[in-house]
Amino acid sequence: MNKNSLRFFEELMRTSSPSGYEMEAAAVFRKELTGFCAEVRTDVLGNTVGVLNPDASMRVMLAGHYDEIGFQIVYISDEGLLYFRPNGGIDKLNVPASEVDVLTESGKVPGVIGKKPIHLLKASERDTPPDLSDLWIDIGASSREEAEKLVSVGDPVAMRANFRLMGGHRVMSKGLDDKVGAFVVAETMRALSRRKLNVAVYGVGTVQEELGLRGAGASAFGINPQVGFGIDVGFATDIPDIPKKLLGDIRLGAGPELSRSADNNPVLGAHMRAVARRHRIVWQETAAHRASGGTDTCAIQLARAGVATALVSIPNRYMHSPVEICDLRDVEGAVRLLTETIASFRGDESFIPGID
User: Fold this and answer.
1) Among 52, 120, 167, 291, which one has the highest count of C-beta atoms within 10 angstroms of its own C-beta?
2) Fold for the domain defined by 3-68+174-343
3) Nearest Cα residue to 279 out of 193, 192, 331, 339
4) What pLDDT, in 10s, does the model give residues 343-354?
5) Structure confidence at residue 157 (pLDDT)
6) For residue range 260-284, what is the model confidence (pLDDT) as tens digits?
7) Which of 22, 24, 32, 209 is catalytic?
């Protein structure tokens, strides 16, 4: 990965963008796309769309969501402690002792998520994860009045930003799900901007995926694509106690995942695999852990009268935690595969299954 792309990657990963409050990530994504897209716009939900070759009749959509799981303040106690609710699919095992940022109108207020010390827990409590309602955010305030000068009920909360390169090819960040997908979208658009295209390409950083694929559905309705690619993270199974007989053998560094499920158009999938073989791009096959749903791909597929879709996943360890890990070789492989697939389109393809 070149220095410019790595700089953009780190800048995007270090943004705070809990679902519904993605402005910081959107600004970084929008600024990067402005350098090579014919048009860049952000809609009322916060989805950012970059466009290449807009006059072509066949429209192809790429989507990676840049929202992340987080929290939202619901109550400030007399002691100046902040109580919160989850915003997205929170794993409560990972929450205690986390460092966070409260996103206020005046800027970020740092805090830590506290709980009762282990010494004061009853024996029955020590082996049971605490409910989120029994945790709080400590921002160093000594009273409600002091806290209210810094934060307000309703302020969103994000895990503290982090980014670290590990080993020769791997990266750790709390925001890889799914800012790595948004990064793949942007880098694919960058690569396609240097190619001759027969189709219009819409690269979208989507919002509110963690709350029900909301941004992808709205943006797909507006774009009305014939083809859509969802780029997200998938479960790496190369760690202990992950049942390969249920989830397959998916390894970091062995290539992006291509899925076979109801969300994936079989004609488009066959075309992608042929492109990968032709260009010697390695990939990993997965049947996914569910028959349908769970990523932006599903929302795009069901937009208007239906879209030919494919899911491309980046293997991810420790999903929905502050220390997710992906492999840059899988990221680069996804960019190559998407670039070569879209560049191969003539603009008159049919993706209706079972009809030659």
Assistant:
1) 52
2) Aminopeptidase (3.40.630)
3) 339
4) 999 999 999 998
5) 98
6) 999 999 999 999 999 999 999 999 9
7) 209
Average pLDDT over residues 132-148: 96
209 labelled catalytic: yes
Phi, psi of 69 (to 5 degrees): -65, 155
- Which contiguous run of DSSP H or E holds residue 30? helix 23-34
pLDDT tens column, 328-344: 999 999 999 999 999 99
Give ranges for CATH 3.40.630.10 in the chain. 3-68+174-343
Both tokens of 143, joined, read: 């009273």
Residue 55, preceding bond cis, omega within 30 degrees?
Answer: no
**CA 63 remoteness from chain centre:** 9
Provide φ and ψ at 52, rounded to 5°: -120, 140
Q: Please give the pLDDT value at position 276.
A: 98
For helices 176-192 and 328-343, give the axis angle rounded to 10 degrees: 40
